[in-house]
Amino acid sequence: MNPQRPFLRVGRLVGWDLRLTCGLAIVCGLFLVGPLGSLVVGPAGLHLGSAGYSQPPSAAHPLGTDTTGRDILAMVVYGAVPTLKIGLVAGAIGTVLGVIFGLVSGYSRGRVDTVVRSAADVALTIPALAVLVVLTAFVRTQTIELMAVIVGLFAWPFATRAIRAQTLVLRERGFVTMARLSGRSPVEIMFLEILPNLLPYVIASFVGAVSGAILVSVGLQLLGLGPITTPTMGLVLQFAFEYAAVSRGMWWWWVPPTAFLVLLFAGLFLISVGLDAFANPRLRRSGR
Amino acid sequence: MTGAPPLLEVTDLAVSYSSSTGRIAAVNGVSFSVAPGERFGLVGESGSGKSTTAMAILRLLRPPGLVERGLVTLEGVDLLAADADTLREIRWRRLALVPQGSMNALNPVMRVRDQIEDGIVAHEGKAERSALRRRVTGLLESVRLSASVADRYPHELSGGMRQRVCIAMAIALAPRLLIADEPTSALDVIVQRAVAETLLDATADLNAALVLIGHDLALQAQMVDRLGVMRAGRLIEVGPVRRVFHTPAHRYTRALIAAVPSIRHRPRLLRADQEEPEGTCAFGPGCPDTGRVGSEARPIMHEIAPDHFVICGLDDATHATERLSGMSA
Questions:
Q1: Contact B151 A196 (CB under 8 A)
Q2: How confident is the model at residue A7 (pLDDT cuts 50, 70, 90)?
Q3: Is the pLDDT of residue B305 over 60?
Q4: Is-contact B177 B210, C-beta < 8 A?
Q5: Quick check: A174 and B105 CB within 8 A?
């Protein structure tokens, strides 16, 4: 192994686990749906009544139209990026908060740890969706970004617990003692010495937080509490349920967004399982 | 031991760990000193308090560990009272630690070069990149490692190489005193010897003093000038290494030396408490301290030969009774 070439290592990591490779391929593919699709499909079909009403798939509208007269393909293409954006922003907020709380809690121990740990434990038992329902009902002007922030603020407890547990292990390692001896401050030790060691866990937490955030945001939208000015998969599903698309046999309305979300969750799941195997050697199958 | 003032002086050091059942004394009234350039060994079984002593000197104890009392001075500076800035100034520059390198003393996700440079920059401020590079190369060469090691990660090195890197880090700022906490305990005997020689050479080049902590008596015999034996938080015997080996005064020291395996004969393992009953002084009935009341915390050390001290084996109660009987007789 050549230490001079970090790229080789990334390559080895990706090529190492088939699940990780598949997961990354699926998620990257879904990211391309928006930019590539918009080259083919114009945004005209997003407007109410711009296409026929409740039309099954046809040459003009490959995925049909909904009861409000919108083109489903256009909704899916232009809703892909905002849907992913909610997940990424919320996941990033939750992970950053979780990393900070987890590092501080695990490294300082004592009273700080007790407070953070108790808070995380309590927050874990509160059903985030229930709180978010109340919260989003209060917030009148809904945007994608605002929703991402609100969802993200509830995504920290899992990341906090995961990072804290690993920090507790690492703080007893010799190199932390050596760093203290060399006069590094606690902040430097936490973020420059310990955090780089936690990268696999941080990425795994992030992936988990992203899929959790997308699930919660779609749930909120199904309840009619999401932003309605930007197309998202959740919005398409919200209308599909409002207009009883399932019982009316309008499969072209609810299948595409559902398929998008199922693929997304499957991709994120594969990534997180693949990363788990990387971060936790005990899960590796023998003979690899 | 005469003339030059000691470099490191530890006086009546006591450290305890608090647990749910109360305070447990890990180090209990330990005193010793190390002269400039001297090599001092500290041996004892696991849990005897030797590593805790080192951690207390380095001010690396963390709760629940607590220094109960005592005085530790390095070149006259009170280490136990030093504030964060003074400590930062002293540690590494004047007082460095050679850790158990195999016990992950190196950050697994940082290259060797970055770890050594970080230590230098933390104390001397930013320096020119090429100058730092040359210094790291020089340091690695002084511990007999090739310059290419600098660009490797710790997991790419063998245990012996990692230990050498740790020595290189410790000597980076030319300290006056190195504390080596079982620097070779996880290595095989061949590598152990080579690393021990490297450590001795490195300290000799710097004319630095060395406190070597370990439980390997044979290794200590080859490496140090003076030896201290610890047991249950106490320093029970201190003396020139030859004297301690040839004429050990304390029964525990005798048992410890008897336990060193030999190729020629295999003695029956001796337990310290089998040889002589508890509460016996090395002086026997003629203990000069009979009648003087030592305290549990501050035991009396007898100087049985020049520079060779042994703890008085009589406990307080015995002292007290003997004093009483002596008075009545």
A1: no
A2: low
A3: yes
A4: yes
A5: yes
